């Protein structure tokens, strides 16, 4: 509701305020939430600690793509990994759409 009201009153300036890029802690939180939904997924094996996130907006409003650097929590001085993930702004939170423990969504073709 607030988002709609803001958009009506302020236009694009409002969109920029609501669509700030997610931080490392925000990406970590989205991963932790998705991990809870994917505990039975064999693709998700380790507890991961996100160290860096470089995010860019996608064409779809409120969606971003982030290149992340991460390590396994049980081996914080071990190998560093990287991956590209997508997130979407939902209400007051970010949701992991693809990457890490989430499968890539199917592409709709005409």
Strand content: 25-35%
Radius of gyration: 16 Å
Instruction: Give the N-to-C terminal Cα separation.
Output: 33 Å
The number of helical elements comes to 3
**Helical residue percent?**
25-40%
Q: Write down the overall geometry.
A: globular
Provide a brief overview of the structure.
By secondary structure, the protein is an alpha+beta fold. Helix content is 27%, strand content 33%.
Report on this structure.
By secondary structure, the protein is of the alpha+beta class. It has 3 helices and 4 strands, in the order αααββββ. The chain has helices at 2-10, 12-18, 24-37, and strands at 48-57, 63-72, 81-90, 93-98. It has a 4-stranded antiparallel beta sheet with strand order 1-2-3-4, covered by helices on one side. 19% of the residues are buried.
Q: Any descriptors?
A:
110 residues, alpha+beta, four-stranded antiparallel β-sheet, 3 helices, 4 strands, 33% strand
What's the topology here?
Elements: H1 2-10, H2 12-18, H3 24-37, E1 48-57, E2 63-72, E3 81-90, E4 93-98
Antiparallel strand pairs: 1-2, 2-3, 3-4
């Amino acid at each position: 509701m607030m988002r709609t009201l803001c958009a009506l009153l302020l236009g694009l300036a409002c969109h920029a305020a609501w669509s700030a890029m997610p931080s490392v802690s925000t990406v970590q939180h989205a991963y932790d939430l998705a991990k809870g939904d994917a505990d039975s997924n064999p693709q998700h094996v380790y507890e991961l600690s996100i160290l860096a996130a470089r995010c860019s907006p996608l064409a779809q409003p409120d969606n971003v793509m982030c290149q992340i650097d991460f390590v396994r929590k049980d081996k914080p001085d071990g190998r560093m990994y990287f991956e590209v993930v997508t997130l979407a702004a939902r209400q007051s939170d970010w949701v992991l759409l693809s990457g890490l423990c989430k499968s890539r969504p199917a592409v709709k073709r005409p």
